[in-house]
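pinned: reference chain
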Amino acid sequence: MIRTILTAIEILITAIVTLPYIPVVLFVGLFSMKARDYLATGAMRFEFKILKFLSGAKVHVTGLENIPKDEPVLYIGNHRSFFDIIIPYYMFPGHTSMISKKEWGKIPVMAWWMKILHNFFLDRNDVKQGLKVILAAIDLVKDGYSICIYPEGTRNKTDEDMLPFHEGSFKIATKSGCAIIPMTMYNMSSLFEDHVPWIKASEVYIDFGTPIRVDELSAEDKKHVGSHVRDIMLETYNKLKEEAGNK
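pinned: its structure tokens
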């Protein structure tokens, strides 16, 4: 209960304190978009580090060395928890934008920060809007920004390890030529979703897999990139589950 209360208080304080910081960041952007991105990304990383600390999460991370430092990438994550977004974000090198469901765009203050960070809000029921988001994300990658997306389309609340991946998400990589980084997470829901509304300390696992370059795949795998990446992540997921079970 204490962790939940402290987290709620911290989020409220942050929302109030950062209100005057937003126009400062926007003003800086009039002169240098790079400086604006640096300030906004730094602020978000700092906030997410605090939330991770308050959650009591003990993070076991592997594969950070697989993330290229000198080129944009497409992070592909499985999704069971709100912490799937919070914990990996501060590990990303450089600037990373996210594709989130449209509901995030209705949260006061948070939505402003997400827009400043070039994040996209996806309406899963609007095919045309979804296509526009993907095309905009492709352009953003070409401008040097990494993208993070959760191609299951929603949080997985089933007994299945992963829901099917939406193939459209992978057009960001196929059309921009960027590498795909499989980001497999295990036990994230133990922090919150398994016992809503309380946040409880837990051990969580993240693995950043070997970069996948679409132009190097077989002709068959190129037709179903999403399924190919999902198979790789399922194998990693089971390894992480086994590692957690042996502790």
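why pinned: The domain at 57-245 is CATH 3.40.1130.10 (Glycerol-3-phosphate (1)-acyltransferase). The CA atoms of residues 51 and 135 lie 32 Å apart.
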